[in-house]
Amino acid sequence: MSTKVIAVANHKGGCGKTTTVVHLAAELADLGNKVLVIDLDPQANASLHIGLRHPSEVETTSAELLVGDLSLLSDALEEETNFKNVSLIYGSLNLGKTEDQLKDDAARPSEELSSKLELLKGLYDYILIDCPPSLKLLTSNALAASTHVIIPIESGSQYGLYGVTDLINHLSKIRRINPELKLLGALLIKHDERQNVCKLIRDEASTQVGELLNTTIPMSTKVNQAAILQQSLLVLDKNTKVRKSFQQLAKEIVSRVK
């Protein structure tokens, strides 16, 4: 199978991007895939969860990789993590400066990640990219390098869909660079089908995004617990509803990207 690169993007903060990346990575790995997570968020929450070291102790992160040359790739790859069969390229606070450096120095500021990932194609089954909450150059790099994109949307919030049309417009701009980019759909997070607000968001998301993933992720305190303990839901408590939802999501994605 050729490597599938999936960006998890939404410029709204707190909508579940990192949670999705982390637990989807664990479940894809559990299905027997080799998985790499690339953390492009300056907050580096995915790295804090998956990584064995604190991002501030890591010399070569996605920030250095984006503005540096290809030789940094092997330094940036961390094979040993808290999750079985999941490798990591750490994020870091330095990513805040990376966008300016790319603007100033890169010949093609949106395509730096894409050129670096060429070497990894075939080594991993899935590469998941955690995007920052903005539509600037870091997210553009992720989308330009990806085969697919998932848009997580917080279902229980009336602001859940705020700005989604901007993101959809941004995708069509990126498709000029990366015509292969496919939208897997919106993923409803903290979704409860019994609540009217969730049903409204679901219908509106379907209209605005045009494609919904069948799997939805319920609200659960286990998600925060897993982050604090640096574990996957799979290890923490594999029989919870939220863990089974992520397992279902992984299976759905495997069948959709085939």
From TrEMBL:
Domain AAA as annotated: residue spans: 3-182
InterPro entries: AAA_dom (IPR025669), DNA_Partitioning_ATPase (IPR050678), P-loop_NTPase (IPR027417)
SUPFAM superfamilies hit by this protein: P-loop containing nucleoside triphosphate hydrolases (SSF52540)
Family, as annotated: To B.subtilis soj.
PANTHER family (UniProt xref): P-LOOP CONTAINING NUCLEOSIDE TRIPHOSPHATE HYDROLASE, PLASMID PARTITION PROTEIN A
Name of the protein in its database record: ParA family protein
